[in-house]
Amino acid sequence: MGRFEETMDSIKSLQIRQSLTQAISLGMVVASALIIWKALMCITGSESPVVVVLSESMEPGFQRGDILFLHMNKDPIRAGEIIVFNVDGKDIPIVHRVIKVHECRKTGEVDVLTKGDNNDKNDRILYARGQLWLQRHHIMGRAVGFLPYVGWVTIIMTDNPIIKYIIIGVLGLLLVASKD
């Protein structure tokens, strides 16, 4: 084997090592993000510790695109609290204020009625057919903090999937083109 072939083999070996290093680095970033998300779920007691406000129903308190931080504990839910809940048969969680609390004296279970601050009527029209109250299992968490407008990135990528693919493509190109 000549000197040229040895040099080419060394270059190929180096390229393979760089590619493997980049793939491992990407895997570490993804794994770190998942670990952080799971840790936040454990710390906050919420299946989704962070949500984006998707509509104007909570204005002026929260704007579309605000990010809410959620926490869930065993404390009773009270009127006036802002909660995030899921409705049976719908995928997108809703951010609204508790306007009424109904406690069953026999079981001690608490049911709640919600309403968006910017809405004229309560949310019974949003609930599953025949449902008048939300039960504890519908509630994902209570709002404990927020970041204004940061969620617009998520809204833009959801409304225009092509932008999401462009961003992923650019990030992929940067990863491949980066030199360690």
UniProtKB/TrEMBL annotation:
Main location: endoplasmic reticulum
Annotated InterPro entries: LexA/Signal_pep-like_sf (IPR036286), Peptidase_S24_S26A/B/C (IPR015927), Peptidase_S26 (IPR019533), Peptidase_S26B (IPR001733)
GO CC, any one term: signal peptidase complex
An example Gene Ontology biological process: proteolysis
Record protein name field: Signal peptidase complex catalytic subunit SEC11
Keyword tags: Hydrolase, Membrane, Protease, Signal-anchor, Transmembrane, Transmembrane helix
NCBIfam families associated with the record: sigpep_I_arch
This enzyme's EC code(s): 3.4.21.89
Keyword Cell division found: no
UniProt catalytic activity: Cleavage of hydrophobic, N-terminal signal or leader sequences from secreted and periplasmic proteins
Residues passing through the membrane, by range: 20-40, 139-156, 162-178
Record localization: Endoplasmic reticulum membrane
Domain called Peptidase S24/S26A/S26B/S26C: residue spans: 36-143
Membrane topology per record: Single-pass type II membrane protein
Cited function: Catalytic component of the signal peptidase complex (SPC) which catalyzes the cleavage of N-terminal signal sequences from nascent proteins as they are translocated into the lumen of the endoplasmic reticulum. Specifically cleaves N-terminal signal peptides that contain a hydrophobic alpha-helix (h-region) shorter than 18-20 amino acids.
Family according to the record: Belongs to the peptidase S26B family.
UniProt keyword Lipid metabolism, yes or no: no
One Pfam family this sequence matches: Peptidase_S24
MF annotations from Gene Ontology: signal peptidase activity
